[in-house]
Amino acid sequence: MSARRGLIGVGIGVAAAGAATAAGVATERVLRSRRRRVGTPSPPDDPELEQRGSVVVADDGVPLYVEIEEPTGAAKDPGSPRGIGGSKRGRTSWGRATVLLVHGYAHSHAIWAQQRRDITGAGYRVVCVDLRGHGRSGEGDDASYTIAQLGRDLAAVIEQTTPTGPIALVGHSMGGMALMALAEQRSQVVRDRVVGVALISTSAGGMSEVDFGLGRQLGGVVHRLGPAAVARADKRPQTFNAARLLGRNVESALVHRYSFGGPVPKDVIREVAEMIFGTRLHVIGAFLPTLIEHDREAALPVFDGIETLIVHGTRDRMTPIAHGERLARSLQGAELVVVKGAGHVLPLESPELVSAELLAFLERAERSVVDR
Predict the structure, then answer these.
(1) Domain 56-207+297-371 adopts which CATH fold?
(2) Is the pLDDT of residue 17 over 80?
(3) What is the pTM of this model?
(4) pLDDT (tens digit per residue) in 60-77
């Protein structure tokens, strides 16, 4: 296959893989940043990262990489720490919430660099996880790459890192879908322990209708051919690595188009590209069907009565703004924050805004629990 044809494969893979924007190109290793921005997590061989990270074992034995950070700032007192037993949510005591941050498709925990720093600085404990097949987590069978399994994985993360106390759930893209699967499977845990849910650039279903900004006809072609294109790319890593080297400018343009809505620094584009190319193509391809088939509208009522935040960009080509608006209509009392001109990867495109909205959301969640 020629490098030119390889780049054509890149284009199909980009739209098909959604957030995994140049997924038609293969790489078998995690690429490391040549220029590290302030607050960007250390590379995998950093001793400090090894000390901070730990492993959670999923129900099928897959090791999931997690990082836990204790609060660095002074906690604000949300109210008297009196027991609140007898409330309809079943909690018996109050404590500062642990915030679980869940990344999206073909990304890693590194996407939350600024948010985790700001949240721990505000006095919260933070747990970050790499989803199976992503980042530093292990791989499972291809049949295990489903949103339902991600829900079970998050249940294991909660059980093994935060067995007691209140929890706030924050999910971006596929991470938000995984939170819906958790609610579907562990509704009582959510009702008893979750004080807030933040859903960023995500959807409860209808992904088969997304045309990735290509128009209905071409978007339909991508849905039909995308998984096969990604599978073929995974079998020809040398060819597609060559295509990537010849098409670095094309790669960056594709990553920018499908990840962001406006101008962003080049090192941010490279950061996202490195997360993408650190995800093996067979993992990307295996997840595609579950993303397209995802439908958890029926699970959303589990979040009723919980402080809920929805954040969505108006130029999101992967999960268009209509998906965020639909979530807001389905979730009683949810707050919808619309970010004009922004794309899909909001934690990196608008990091200060996302941090500010999450901190305000956490304060509202604390107040609502104390009031109850």
Answers:
(1) Rossmann fold (3.40.50)
(2) no
(3) 0.79
(4) 999 999 999 999 876 554
